Amino acid sequence: MSFKLDLQKPPKFLTTWVAAVGLSLTLINSPLTLAEWVPSPLIASQPQGASLTGKNGQYTAQIIVNSSADTSWKVLTDYNNFYHFLPNVISSHLLKSQGNQKVFEQVYKIQAFVFNQTTRLRISATEIYPKQIDFKLVEGDLKGLQGSWKIEPISAKQVRILHQVNVEPGSTPSRTLFYNVYESSLKNTLEAIKKESERRN
After folding, report:
1. 59 near 164, Cβ under 8 Å?
2. By three-state DSSP, how is residue 127 classified?
3. What would the DSSP string read from start to end of 184-199?
4. Closest residue by Cα to residue 125 from 142, 107, 102, 148
5. 26-69, pLDDT tens digit by residue?
6. How far, rounded to the nearest angstrom, does the alpha carbon of residue 197 sit from its chain's CA centroid?
7. For 23-46, what is the HEC assignment?
8. CA distance 66 to 75
9. Pairwise CA distance, residues 30 & 182, whole Å
10. N or C: which end of the chain has fewer CB within 10 A?
11. Would the pTM count as exceeding 0.90?
12. pLDDT at site 80
C-alpha cells in the first residue's frame, strides 16, 4: 500500500500542524504583551483580587479592574477625595498643581493589634496621562517612599493597575510589624481603587 501526498489539497493534520507552528513563531517574534494578544475572555477570567509580591518595603502589586483607563486614571488622581474611598486615609488635600506636577498631603491612621500609628505624608506626583503616575515623598513621617502607578488597558472596559513602591518606615516600635501591616493595607488599597473605579464606571 503506498501513500501519495496531494500538495494541492494537504491532509487536515498537516494544515493544523503548520498553523500551530506559525502561531508559535508569531508569538516568539511578536513585541506584543500578553494582554494584547490573549483574547479578552481569557483575560477577564483571571483572578480579580489584588496580588502582591515583594518583601521588606519593596513591593509590586496589581489588580484587574472592570473600567475604562480614563475612569481608573480619574480615581488615582482624585487627590482631594482619597479619604472618601481609600482605607486608613483620614485626610487628603491637593496642595499644588502645575501642569503634570502635583503635590498632595494625606494622613493615614492604622490600627492593628498593638500597632497604632498616624502618619502624615506630603507627596510629589508626576502624571503621564493616561498611563502612569510617578510619586515620591517630599516630607513626612516615613523615612522614604517612592514608586509608581501604571494603567495597562486590556480592552475598552478593562485595565490592569500595576503599583510599584519602595517604602522605609520612620520611627516605629517594630520594622517587621510595620511591613506586615503595610502589605495588608496595600492589598486593601488596590481593592478599594478597583471598587471605586467600577462604581464610577
Report:
1. yes
2. strand
3. HHHHHHHHHHHHHHHH
4. 102
5. 333 434 433 333 333 434 445 569 999 999 999 999 999 999 99
6. 13
7. HHHHHHHCCCCHHHHCCHHHHHCC
8. 13
9. 38
10. N
11. no
12. 98
Cell of 81: 477625595
What residue type is 131 in one-letter code? K
C-alpha cell, 150: 501604571
Q: Which residue has the cell 509590586?
A: 60
CA distance 126 to 113: 35
Backbone torsions φ then ψ of 21, nearest 5 degrees: -65, -40
Amino acid at 15: T
What is the residue whose three cell numbers read 505624608? 121
Q: Which amino acid is at 91?
A: S
Quickly count helices (H) and strands (E) in the chain: 6, 8
CA triple 135-148-133, angle to 5 deg? 70
**Which amino acid appears at position 129 of this protein?**
Y
Residue 63 CA to residue 197 CA, distance in Å, equals: 12
DSSP symbols for 140-156: ESSSEEEEEEEEEEEET
Set of cell numbers at residue 98 = 502645575
Burial label for 53, CB within 10 Å (0-12, 13-18, 19+), is exposed
pLDDT at 12 over 50: no
DSSP symbol at 81: G
Which DSSP state fits 80? G
User: Cell numbers at residue 86, please?
Assistant: 481609600
- According to DSSP, the β-strands at 89-98 and 101-112 are antiparallel
Residue carrying the nine cell digits 477577564? 44
